[in-house]
Amino acid sequence: xxxxxxxxxxxxKEDGITWVILNRPEKRNAMNPTLNREMVEILGELAVDDxxxxxxxxxxxxxxxxxxxxxxxxxxxxxxxxxxxxxRQDAHRWQVHLLRHFPKPTIAxxxxxxxxxxxxxxxxxDFAIAAEDATFGLSEVNWGIIPGGYVxxxxxxxxxxxxxxxxxxxxxxxxxRKAAELKVVNEAVxxxxxxxxxxxxxxxxxxxxxxxxxxCKEAVRATWTMSxxxxxxxxxxxxxxxxxxxxxxGREKAxxxxxxxxxxxxxxxxxxxxx
Length: 275
Ligand code: ACO
Ligand code: V55
Prior knowledge:
Layout (H helix, E strand, L loop, with lengths): L8 E6 L2 E6 L10 H15 L6 E6 L3 E3 L4 H5 L6 H20 L5 E5 L2 E3 L3 H6 L2 E5 L3 E3 L13 H8 L2 H10 L2 E3 H6 L5 E3 L4 H13 L3 H14 L4 H18 L4 H11 L15
Bound molecules: acetyl coenzyme *A and 4-hydroxy-3-methoxybenzaldehyde.
The site of 4-hydroxy-3-methoxybenzaldehyde (V55) has 12 residues, from α3.
């Protein structure tokens, strides 16, 4: 993808990790139509980029993201239905569809402020790690709206009914530690350890068979809302499909290493991909 310059996003690649950095620090990385349009393009390209094994979504400066841009995403398009439609379409395309179906693992690195609309890309990422002192909030109630778009629904996918109701209705903030307790993020670490923790997780993911990893994440998302019988049928078909598309023939290799060579223990480590 080269070193293309964007106005509102920075993309940095290093050792298979691609850092997608929301880059409007002076506006606390509020998501405006320019940022949303650029994110649609960026995620479309990175999905098929061979240099990208793991994607990390984070923010420049003091914020992860202060949510949707109150001026450019709301007030400026209030009386322009076409612009409003386009703005929403771009926002939801990257925050929901492109991120949820991203073919490689995605990690949200919540470095600071995370408000309102920022919960949608957060929940869309496969993993989330926060700075202990990051601040989260569903602030919509404070300014006379509900958490719209996909936000309220997203929250109910990761948090309990009681917690969603409490934070949506009161607008009260919570920190990274609390976010981990609420399961909005996997874990919270001191700010100075945040990047290293994310890199360590990304490096663990890089050791695994990428075809298997992709099928696993797709299976979790797809079966989330299925009935028991649908899930059983889907998973059976998905498992057979994986054997068909995996050029490494990981399953056969792993069975050979475990059953014949007795050279690895599948409960404790990944099979050796290099033979
Ligand atoms: N939309 C548009 N502009 C924003 C947003 C936003 N969501 N958040 C911050 N900004 C802008 C401010 O207007 C200000 O712009 P200016 O310098 O041109 O005046 C600049 O970013 C800095 O903001 P401050 O408030 O001065 O920054 P501070 O560090 O003191 O506070 C905080 C940060 C707490 C994030 C504060 O900016 C804030 O409350 N932002 C709004 C959070 C919010 O309610 N988001 C919307 C949720 S609802 C939804 O997303 C649908
Ligand atoms: C919000 C977010 C949206 C939207 C309307 O409250 C409201 C947040 C991410 O999209 O379209």
